[in-house]
Description:
Layout: H1 2-55, H2 61-79, H3 93-113, H4 116-125, H5 132-145, H6 150-162, H7 166-180, H8 184-197, H9 204-216, H10 221-233, H11 237-248, H12 257-274, E1 291-298, E2 311-318, E3 327-332, E4 338-343, E5 359-367, E6 377-380, E7 384-385, E8 392-396, E9 398-399
Parallel strand pairs: 1-8
Antiparallel strand pairs: 1-4, 2-3, 2-5, 5-6, 5-7, 6-9
Amino acid sequence: MIDFWLATGLLLLIALSFLLIPILRERRVQREEDRTALNVALYQERVAELQAQQVEGVLSAEQMDSGRAEAARELLADTEGVAPARVSRLGKPLPLLAALLVPVLGLVLYLHFGASDKVELTREFAQAPQSVEEMTRRLERAVAAQPDSAEGLYFLGRAYMAQDRAADAAKAFERAVKVAGRQPELLGQWAQAQYFADGKRWSPQVQALTDEALKIDPKEVTSLGLLGIAAFEGERYQEAIDYWKRLLVQLPPDDNSRAALQGGIDRASEKLVASGGKVKVAEVPVVKAALLKVRVDLAAELKAKVQPGDSVFIFARATQGPPAPLAAKRLTVADLPATVELGDADAMMPQLKLSNFPEVQLVARVSRAGQPTAGEWIGRSRPLASSTAAQQNLTIDSPDK
């Protein structure tokens, strides 16, 4: 940020020079005019002396003419090169006042209409955060600068949940729903945050949100997990087992949450048996893992406009779902062209996998600041099935607006 203000100060000095230089030039012209007036006065005094000497009979007419010519030559020599006087209608006070007001007015206009907060935010996002609290503060500033960013609101809500700020998370997810529409993943996250914000009390609002999310997407993982918790707390153990089994099958084999989820299923089974019930074994469909192969390249006309070290983010996102990427990888411009694979193993979060969404869009973004949500250039594919096996070609060819 210091570099930015130094550059701003330099530009202001250049602008002030256009106002102050004419004033300095005017002072120099005034000094030259004063010297010319003095020379004219001396010339007139010398001519008067010659005339007096001629009257007294000391000088002849020829000597008088010669002396007058000599005085004229000296006057011309002294005034040679002096520019003609220029009359200024502005006067001196107005340029000086303008010189003072220009930087002040420029600063006021920039602070009001400028984007100094976004400049500073871009610099911060180029460095890795040192804590969850620092990341949350950055996301809060990002959302304040871009209130219509569904991605920013989504990640801010997740950050609040990581800090046990469920009420704040519920508000963030509610705003994300208003911006991005009633996507099932956002509805599920909103329901979960509201459930914990209400002190783990099931409410008609939470029920309505989970019902709506599962109606749109029966595999929406957050709603399945939340309904399992509510069923367990309400001693409806068979329902809890069914919900959690539907969730378990969607988690990757190496997901750390599988053990905790299986433990919940086991506890629900024990309580069901202890209460005299019998665990029903339901067949759970096996979901095949999704894997997309994509070749990414840069349009020829953009190669001179990027730098080798610029970051390239390649990700897949649901066409009907949360704004957050389902799978992502990071390269640099120097790596292009490159072929990458995006699959369930590259999921940003266990709940968001390619195989959970029938249709996705591939996106590649060039960001000089290293910010995945904003950059200079972008390329997008047409919607395609997440089960697509053929290699896709993606070209970065458009300004990122």
